[in-house]
Amino acid sequence: QGQLVESGGGLVQPGGSLRLSCVVSGFTLEYYSIGWFRQAPGKEREGVSCDSSSAGNTYYADSVKGRFTISRDNAKNTVYLQMNSLKPEDTAVYYCAAGLWCGGRMDYWGKGTLVTVGS
C-alpha cells in the first residue's frame, strides 16, 4: 500500500517562500506521476502542479505558474514543491498524491500540510 507524507508547511509572510516535501513509500516513485493539490477553507480541492512519470512533463495551474516549481528525486523517494512569491490566496492545506498519469485518477494520497500566508 502506497504512503505519502507531506512536510514543510507553516506560516510565511506574503512574498516569502516555502518548500514542501512529499516522501513516498510502498511503491516505486519513478513509475508514478505525482501531483500537488490544495484545499483552502470553504473551497473545493484544486490541482496545483503535477510531475509526470515521463521525463520532462510538468504541469501548473495558471494561478501558480512562474511562482511554483515541482521537482522530484527518485533516489530519495521525494517530490518537492518550491513555492515563491507567496500570496494570501495560496493559504490552504497542500496534499501530494500519486497516480499513473497527471490528470488521471490518483491512487494514493497524503494527509496534507498547512500553508498559511499572512503577517
Q: Strand-residue fraction?
A: over 45%
Distance between the termini: 40 Å
Helix-strand sequence: EEEEEEEEEEE
Extract low-pLDDT stretches.
none
Helix content: under 10%
Largest sheet: 7 strands, mixed
Number of strands: 11
Relevant terms:
single chain, 119 residues, mainly beta, 7-stranded mixed β-sheet, 4-stranded antiparallel β-sheet, 0% helix
Write up what this structure looks like.
This protein is mainly β. It has no helices and eleven strands. It has strands spanning 3-7, 10-12, 18-25, 33-39, 46-51, 58-60, 68-73, 78-83, 92-99, 106-109, 113-117. Strand 9 and strand 10 (106-109) form a beta hairpin. The protein starts with a strand and ends with a strand. The model has no long low-confidence stretch (mean pLDDT 95).
Structure described in brief:
The protein has 119 residues and is an all-beta fold. The protein has strands spanning 3-7, 10-12, 18-25, 33-39, 46-51, 58-60, 68-73, 78-83, 92-99, 106-109, 113-117.
SSE layout and pairing:
Elements: E1 3-7, E2 10-12, E3 18-25, E4 33-39, E5 46-51, E6 58-60, E7 68-73, E8 78-83, E9 92-99, E10 106-109, E11 113-117
Parallel strand pairs: 2-11
Antiparallel strand pairs: 1-3, 3-8, 4-5, 4-9, 5-6, 7-8, 9-10, 9-11
